[in-house]
Amino acid sequence: MNARPEPTGVLAVDVGNTSTRFGLFVDGALGDTWEASTPERLTVDEARCAVGAFLGERVRRAGVAGVGVLPAAPADAVLSCVVPDFVEVWTQALRAECGRRPLVVGPGLKTGVRMRYSDPAEIGPDRIADLVAALAEFTGPLVVVDLGTTTNLEVVDADGVFVGGIIAPGLALGARSLANAAARLPVVELKAPQSVIGKNTREAMQAGVVMGEVARLDGLLDLVEAELGSTPTVVVTGTHAAALAALLRHDAQADDTLTLRGLHKLYEANRKK
């Protein structure tokens, strides 16, 4: 592979309670993405190894594809982290990898999001990123559904103002809680069963967990629609976004890179050139 100069990249890192997602933006466009499990404990060196694994995979893919240019390496980074103990760990790791302190999403950043919320500082950085990306592409009314450890619904009214949201236990959390609380129940694969009435224990659990989540989301969307007085655009992101969006009674579009794109937009709005 013959290397020649490439544009510098911006690494977006979204650290959730269950998974951590990486995306590299080159010239403003999102290229490769990668997802890893979020561990219970993390050191700076381990965080740097995760970044290195992502960048190494990009080089491997370029080699397999026969691309004659080495992929761009990140010269800067933007971080969203909902695990308080990991914020400084990731800040140090990204500074070591990129050569400068990353932009950390939190209070004080310019978002461009108009809000009617009692305490904006309480809103998680991933929720902010979702709103920023969605509002750049859609007008209100709008509901962003983010599926992760928690299921978050962010609601934007017809005037494009964020008016609040809903936070509920997530799909995987429900499945683990069910298996942990009942000794004879297994941990099941999170997919829709052939029928709602399960013919065995696993199918019955999948119906309760997966189809139960679908029914809950449809019910919550009905309540939001009634309170807004209009039909919102529904965008679903996060783990299993495409599968759940397809099962909903409401029209919904899946967008699994929404949070990463929102982080990059926050980077562009806040990082001094």
Short description:
The chain is an alpha/beta fold. The chain folds into 2 domains: about 10-105, Nucleotidyltransferase, domain 5 (2-Layer Sandwich), CATH 3.30.420; about 120-260, 2-Layer Sandwich (Nucleotidyltransferase, domain 5), CATH 3.30.420.40.
Features:
single chain, 273 residues, alpha/beta, Nucleotidyltransferase, domain 5, 5-stranded mixed sheet, 7 helices, 10 strands, 23% strand, disordered N terminus
Could you explain the architecture of this structure?
Its cofactor is K(+); NH4(+). Belongs to the type III pantothenate kinase family. GO terms for molecular function: pantothenate kinase activity. Pathway: Cofactor biosynthesis; coenzyme A biosynthesis; CoA from (R)-pantothenate: step 1/5. Its EC number is 2.7.1.33. This protein folds into two domains: 9-104, ATPase, nucleotide binding domain (Nucleotidyltransferase, domain 5, 2-Layer Sandwich), CATH 3.30.420.40; 120-262, Nucleotidyltransferase, domain 5 (2-Layer Sandwich), CATH 3.30.420.40. The protein contains seven helices and ten strands. The chain is 38% helix and 23% strand. It has a five-stranded mixed sheet, with helices on both faces. The longest helix is centred in the C-terminal third of the chain and has 28 residues, at 201-228. By secondary structure, it is α/β, with parallel strands linked by helices. Residues 1-5 have low confidence and may be disordered. Helix 1 crosses helix 2 (87-98) and helix 3 (125-137) crosses helix 7 (258-270).
